[in-house]
Amino acid sequence: MFKRIQYLDENGNLLNNDISEALTTSFVQSLYEKLILVRSFDRKAISLQRQGRLGTYAPFEGQEAAQVGSALALQADDWLFPTYRDHAATITFGHSLKTILLYWNGRVEGCIPPEGKKIFPPAVPIATQLPHATGAALAEKRKGTKNAAIVYFGDGATSEGDFHEGLNFASVFKAPVVFFNQNNQFAISVPIEKQMNSETIAQKSVAYSIPGVRLDGNDIFAVYFETKKALDRAREGDGPTLIEAVTWRYGAHTTADDPTKYRNQDESERKRATTDPISRLEKYMKNQGIWDEAWQESIITKATQKIEQAIEEMEAYPPPNVDDLFDHVFAVPTWTIKEQKDQYYEFLRGVNQ
Ligand SMILES: Cc1ncc(C[n+]2csc(CCOP(=O)(O)OP(=O)(O)O)c2C)c(N)n1
Ligand SMILES: [Mg+2]
């Protein structure tokens, strides 16, 4: 019913000639550069966590094209609602690497977007961000702007009530929001076939009479151009779209789990060999004669320098303020929060005696 759209096949062949004019050398090279930066960052973050320099971390390796391609389709005044796994998207839209590192170090500064950028803090309670995004989009519509919102969520999130409430409300009120699903086919250890009977996630759009798009999430061209179309529709007042980007996470759910306990990791390695989003773009670029090893080396070096500098800045921060743990939960703290805060200070006094 919903065919998976591809613009670029696994061998780097362009399947959609309508976009060839837009694929200038500088655009394609900038996509590749972004993919290299976020993958290098992701790998480094895992190693920092292993060294005890980050608290925990949720890797996205394998999902880079889905995140970079979609976030790149946004305009500067749009909204972005991420989950805990969407750092490649938030980096693409303007978050600094340092901010992401601060977040995973448990710092409140890790939730603050750059001046003027509407990036929400990562949502950890699954699917809660969908109604938020619908609300923000609706507010833009009421104000009469042409701004839209994009909201990221996983396959598991589509089994939550908030997913359905977000879509229903957006559909009824024609909110300018793009529901961007990354179907990495696992919700922690639960494979998609054990979680839902629906064949696709895109088909869930039918229930709300909104357009549904199923695409190859490892094909950065399909992701970028299809997301742009959906955002344009939203801006024109035609309402929301549900996009399902079919992808795979190559690694663990977070640094706290071991994927070999619930799936055969050989499958991930096989998928990497055939569907890796970066190799696919690289093949296309080689076919076009716009990729060579010296250039690749130079962008890897640039990415590494940027990452090392962000780590230095993150590690130079003064110790966090304990109050931050409690003070940002409610505008007016409840008695339970006050009690927990007092108890924690009492605990710290005991530790420091
Ligand atoms: C409301 C809620 N229930 C359960 C959890 C625990 N939990 C954290 S991640 C996760 C899986 C989510 O899977 P998916 O939506 O596919 O996103 P992915 O992690 O694959 O990116 C669950 C169940 C949670 N964070 N929030
Ligand atoms: Mg998932």
Explain this structure.
- This protein is 47% helix and 9% strand.
- The chain is α/β, with parallel strands linked by helices.
- It has two domains: 17-320, Thiamin diphosphate (ThDP)-binding fold, Pyr/PP domains (Rossmann fold), CATH 3.40.50; 321-353.
- The protein has a six-stranded parallel β-sheet with strand order 2-1-3-4-8-7, sandwiched between helices.
- α1 (25-50) runs antiparallel to α10, α1 packs across α11 and α2 (64-72) runs parallel beside α3 (87-93).
- The protein is globular and about 70 Å long.
- It binds thiamine diphosphate and magnesium ion (MG).
- Thiamine diphosphate (TPP) binds at residues 85, 124-126, 153-157, 184, 186-188, 253.
- Thiamine diphosphate is lined by residues 85, 124-126, 153-157, 184, 186-188, 253.
Annotation keywords:
single chain; 353 residues; alpha/beta; Rossmann fold; 2 domains; 6-stranded parallel beta sheet; two-stranded antiparallel sheet; 47% helix; 9% strand; binds thiamine diphosphate; binds magnesium ion; oxidoreductase
Brief write-up:
With 353 residues, this protein is of the alpha/beta class.
Could you give the topology of this structure?
Elements: H1 25-50, H2 64-72, E1 79-81, H3 87-93, H4 97-104, E2 118-119, H5 129-143, E3 149-154, H6 161-173, E4 177-183, E5 186-187, E6 190-191, H7 192-195, E7 212-216, H8 220-235, E8 241-246, H9 265-275, H10 277-288, H11 293-315, H12 324-327, H13 335-352
Parallel strand pairs: 1-2, 1-3, 3-4, 4-8, 7-8
Antiparallel strand pairs: 5-6
Helix pairs in contact: 1-2, 1-3, 1-10, 1-11, 2-3, 2-8, 4-11, 5-6
Bound molecules: thiamine diphosphate (TPP) and magnesium ion.
